[in-house]
Amino acid sequence: MKIYVLGSSHFYKEMVACKDRLRELGYDGWIHPDYEAFARGDKQDIVTRWRNGERAAIKRENNYLNEHYGNILASDAVLIVNLEKQGVKNYIGGNVLIEMGQAYVNGKKIFFLNGMPEGLSYMDEIEAMDPICLNGDLAAIA
Q1: Is pTM beyond 0.90 here?
Q2: 3-class SS at 98?
């Protein structure tokens, strides 16, 4: 199974670790190459600009929305790395919600690394896509 790893850019190190673990488990796990570059310490100009609030410009300049969509289409499933962020357990942000929708309407399985988030204004939309919660156990992917 080819599984594309997604999540808040805040979690890029954890996303790379999940991709590596998927490969150890025998899956074709993959991720946008920029996340791996960030984890290696490369492309720090983008990381700095991101932290300084230039997120929309960076997404446009690097065509991230379209690239993620193409990678979702080329996969059998997506793994959403949903950790705690901004005090929200199992965080799913706006960009990930878009990516989940793209996966859903294209018939891709949606896995959450952890459980469902709580208290987000778009919980109905998340729940309607029937993500499979792995509760931290990538070996539970079926």
Answers
A1: yes
A2: helix
